[in-house]
């Protein structure tokens, strides 16, 4: 009898974590490596948020809290949803978890039965299909090409829905492409979903505030109120507030779903860190003026990276609307040979040779469900980005 669970046969390790770990190992061995795989801002957590955490420690707020979050944080989340998204929730419609990933995982574990299908537009965040599979469901990927801005089209959504469809996961702005759905684009999708009452909507809005060029964010339950009672609106403090390590995610949704997710959480991790929760209260209620300032820096980096990558032979890089990723195609390099004699057969070969030859760590597009491409996170200092792009230009120029 095997010792490990058969469920492990259904999932793969995270490719983004794997490339970050490999880059760290090469750095530790003395290699000059620029890591562009990690999806976290390089800015520090704002001082007022850190101070709120310190005050919480000094005040002894270091005990277990309610499983689904402290009342003060739930109140801040409710105020945020109403203020920024026009969504009205009550405390029993809100849950706080250890990062957005746990919110998503709890929701799937609480609702998926064997054979249930979950529609996932591709390119997708690497964890979506793996979490669905771990919960016993069937991920159904719909490929969304650069031709359509990496965005799901209504006809493709309609064609993918079956009687077994339980959820659709929407992520805007997107990890890995940075693509963001306009209100009109979302309305076209919600018009389809209104016709299929068995399909629930899980919307990952983690990059809500990281948008550029006057893009106006919207979320599905805001665009189509008819879907409010079957939508889980997921968000968190990691990206906009530079709090990735604090591990706080949250969601608003129907009472019974939130209750079920809280039950799952009560028997796994219990509540998130009390200190991180108090810091998140300050994040949501406190000054927000640093967010557009950070976005200006991100926008400058985006424009630099897009321009330099489009000057690399065989690379084509679209300009994203949000998040801090670009998703360039490397189709023009496939079939060519690197200076080491390695033939580039696919995007995994491309990123492997790039790391070994030039010391630039990126993530292959096939890990996100669409290749040949690769993802770059430009949430790192500008000088490193410029150096990395020069190395990529040199690497592509040396291919024969």
Termini distance? Answer: 51 Å
H/E series, N to C?
HEHHEHEHEHEHEHEEHHHEHEEEH
Shape: globular
- The portion of residues assigned to helices is 25-40%
- Helix count equals 13
What structural class do the secondary elements suggest? alpha/beta
Compute the number of strand runs. Answer: 12
Strand order of the largest sheet: 2-8-7-6-5-3-4
Largest sheet: 7 strands, mixed
What percentage of the residues does DSSP assign to strands (E)? 5-15%
Q: Nearest-angstrom radius of gyration?
A: 21 Å
- Low-confidence segments, given as residue ranges, are none
What is the mean pLDDT?
96
Give a short summary of the structure.
With 400 residues, the chain is an alpha/beta fold. The protein has helices at 15-28, 47-58, 71-85, 100-111, 127-134, 154-160, 183-194, 220-223, 255-266, 274-285, 290-309, 347-358, 382-398, and strands at 34-35, 94-97, 117-122, 138-143, 165-171, 200-204, 231-236, 249-252, 325-326, 360-361, 363-364, 374-377.
Overview of the structural elements:
The chain is built from 13 helices and twelve strands. The protein has helices spanning about 15-30, 45-60, 70-85, 100-110, 125-135, 155-160, 185-195, 220-225, 255-265, 275-285, 290-310, 345-360, 380-400, and strands at about 35, 95, 115-120, 140-145, 165-170, 200-205, 230-235, 250, 325, 360, 365, 375. A seven-stranded mixed beta sheet has the order 2-8-7-6-5-3-4, with helices on both faces. Helix 3 runs parallel beside helix 10 and helix 11 runs parallel beside helix 13. The radius of gyration is 21 Å and the shape is globular. The termini are far apart.
């Amino acid at each position: 009898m095997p010792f490990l669970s058969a469920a492990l046969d259904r999932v793969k390790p995270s490719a983004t974590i794997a490339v970050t770990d490999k880059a760290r190992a090469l750095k530790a061995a003395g290699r000059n490596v620029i890591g562009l795989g990690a999806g976290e801002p390089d800015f520090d957590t704002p001082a007022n948020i850190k101070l709120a955490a310190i005050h919480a420690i000094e005040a002894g707020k270091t005990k277990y809290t309610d499983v689904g979050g402290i009342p003060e944080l739930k109140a801040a989340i409710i105020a945020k949803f109403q203020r920024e998204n026009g969504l009205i929730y009550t405390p029993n419609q809100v849950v706080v978890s250890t990062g957005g990933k746990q919110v998503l995982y709890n929701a799937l574990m609480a609702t998926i039965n064997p054979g249930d299908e979950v529609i996932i537009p591709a390119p997708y965040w690497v964890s979506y299909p793996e979490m669905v599979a771990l919960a016993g469901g069937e991920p159904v990927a719909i490929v969304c090409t650069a031709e359509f801005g990496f965005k799901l089209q209504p006809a493709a959504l309609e064609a993918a829905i079956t009687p077994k469809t339980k959820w659709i996961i929407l992520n805007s702005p997107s990890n890995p492409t940075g693509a963001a759905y306009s209100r009109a684009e979302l309305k076209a999708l919600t018009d389809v979903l209104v016709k299929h009452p068995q399909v629930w909507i899980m919307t990952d809005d983690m990059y809500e505030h990281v948008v550029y060029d006057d893009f106006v964010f919207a979320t599905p339950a805001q665009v189509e109120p008819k879907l409010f009672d079957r939508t889980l609106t997921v968000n968190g403090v990691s990206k906009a507030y530079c709090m990735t390590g604090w591990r706080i995610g949250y969601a608003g949704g129907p009472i019974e779903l939130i209750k079920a997710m809280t039950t799952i959480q009560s028997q796994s991790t219990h509540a998130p860190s009390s200190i991180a929760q108090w810091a998140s209260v300050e994040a949501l209620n406190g000054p927000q003026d640093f967010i557009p300032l950070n976005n200006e820096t991100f926008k400058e980096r985006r424009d630099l990276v897009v321009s330099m990558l489009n000057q690399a032979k065989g690379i084509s890089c679209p300009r994203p609307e949000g998040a801090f990723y670009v998703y360039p195609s490397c189709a023009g390099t496939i079939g060519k040979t690197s200076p080491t004699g390695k033939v580039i057969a696919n995007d995994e070969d491309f990123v492997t040779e790039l790391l070994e030859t030039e010391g630039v760590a990126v993530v292959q597009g096939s890990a996100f469900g669409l290749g040949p491409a690769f993802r770059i996170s430009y949430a790192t200092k500008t000088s490193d980005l410029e150096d990395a792009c020069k190395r990529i230009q040199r690497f592509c120029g040396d291919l024969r």
